[in-house]
Amino acid sequence: MLVRYKKNSEKIAMGLLSFMPQEKDIKKLRETILTYEVNSNWHLFLWKKEEDFVGLIGIETSNEVCLVQHITVNPSHRGDGIGKQMVSKVQHFLPCTEIVAAQSTKPFLDKCLIKQEGTDA
User: Number of C-alpha atoms within 13 angstroms, CB side, residue 65?
Assistant: First the structure.
């Protein structure tokens, strides 16, 4: 289930973000979280599976385009289709007519879309 980020989930969000190569440094993690907290065009969501948060997706909106700035899944839950589910559910929260990947999220997003296409066939 996709849920909006709230300040009380900050440590969980930082932990999930730390799985991304460019987000390893604690200072960088804090800056990233602050960007989502203060910028009205940046939206952070967590994926909850049963009682645990296991994924995260961060979107920057511009007009009706949603740019995936961050997307990550806990390594023990990778391969379960969570990335694909997060991408599809974002459209229920944001007015996206198009979802595109930032350079840093393109490889992950491409995997999600390939798996999605593969399951539709």
Answer: 6
How many Cβ atoms are within 10 Å of 49's Cβ, its own excluded? 15
pLDDT in tens, the chain (121 residues): 999 999 999 999 999 999 998 898 999 999 999 999 999 999 999 999 999 999 999 999 999 999 999 999 999 999 899 999 999 999 889 988 999 999 999 998 887 766 544 444 3
Q: Which residues contact 57 (CB under 8 A, 6 or more apart)?
A: 2, 44, 45, 47, 68, 70, 71, 86, 87, 90
**Cα dihedral angle (84, 13, 30, 59), rounded to 10 degrees?**
30
Could you tell me whether strands 65-73 and 98-101 are parallel, antiparallel, or unpaired per DSSP bridges? parallel
The SS3 of residue 67 is strand
Give the residue among 78, 88, 77 at the shortest CA–CA distance from 117: 88
Q: Rounded to an integer, what distance in angstroms lies between the CA atom of residue 57 and that of residue 90?
A: 8
